[in-house]
C-alpha cells in the first residue's frame, strides 16, 4: 500500500503531492511548530507577557489530545464523540490520587494511562461492533456515562469540580511549580507523542489501519483482522488522551466533569477537522488555530461561537482537507 495513495483528506491518485503537512513534510512542519514553541518563553519575557506561556501550555495540551483523536478519526475513520472522557479520566487520576496523598506526576500518569486504556478497551470492544452513526452514538453514550459518574462523585467536588492544593511533583522535585517548567514538560510530551504516533502510522500497523479505513472488507479478505487493529488504535488514543488530562489538571490546578462533556469531544473533533484529518502535524496546527480563534473571537464579541461556526463552514466548503489541505495546494502551485 503506497504512501502516495493518500492525501490529507483521504485518497488521491498515485504520485500526487499532499503538501507540507503530509509525507516527510509533516516532520518538517511539526519541527517548525516545535521550534517556534520552544522559543516562545524567551519572547514572552522580552515583551513582558508571561500569560503567553500559560496560553501556549494549554494549547499544547489540547494538541496532544487532538493528536490522540486523529489516530482514530483521521487514520482509522472512527468518529468518536466521547473522546473527552479519556481527557477527564486523566485529570481525575491526578485529583483523586492527590486527595489521597499521592502527588507524584509519574505515578499519576501511570494510573491515568492504565485507567484510560482500560476504559478504552472495554468501551471500544463494544463500540467497534457497530458502524457509522451507531458508532458515533454509542461513543457519545459512553462518554456521557463517564461524565455523569464523575458528577455523582460528591467526595471529589461533584458537578462543581475540585481544586488542587498544588501541582504535582516529579520524583519529589517541584519541577511543575512554575509555569516555565510545566511549559517545557508539556512541549516534551507533545514532541514524544508526535514522534511516537508518526512512527506508528508509518509502520505496518499504520498501513493496515489506513487500509481498514478505506476498505475493511478487502483488508479482511487478505488476512488482516480490522477489529483488532482498530481496537488497539482506540486503546492507544485513549491512553494518550489520559496523559493530556494529567497535564491539563496540573495546568489549570482544577478538575471538573466538564473536561469530559460531549461539547469538549466536539471541540476535539473540530480541531482535527480544522487542521486536516489523517495528518498529525495538521492536528497540532488545528488545535493551535482553534484555541487562538476561540480567544480572539471571544475578545471581539460575546457571540464568538457564531463567528467560529461560520469560519468552520467556510473552511469545509472551500478548503478540503482543512489547514493542511490548503497549505498542500498552495505548495503544489508554487512548485508547478
Automatic annotation (TrEMBL):
PANTHER family named in the record: ABC TRANSPORTER ATP-BINDING PROTEIN, HIGH-AFFINITY BRANCHED-CHAIN AMINO ACID TRANSPORT SYSTEM PERMEASE
Localization in the cell: Cell membrane
Organism taxonomic ancestry: Bacteria, Pseudomonadati, Pseudomonadota, Alphaproteobacteria, Hyphomicrobiales
Membrane topology designation: Multi-pass membrane protein
Name of the protein in its database record: Branched-chain amino acid ABC transporter permease
Pfam family, one: BPD_transp_2
Claim: Manganese is one of the keywords in the record: no
Superkingdom of origin: Bacteria
Record field: transmembrane: 20-39, 51-73, 80-99, 105-126, 133-156, 176-200, 231-249, 269-293, 305-327
Keyword Cell membrane: yes
UniProt keywords, alphabetically: Cell membrane, Membrane, Transmembrane, Transmembrane helix
InterPro entries: ABC_transp_permease (IPR001851), LivM-like (IPR043428)
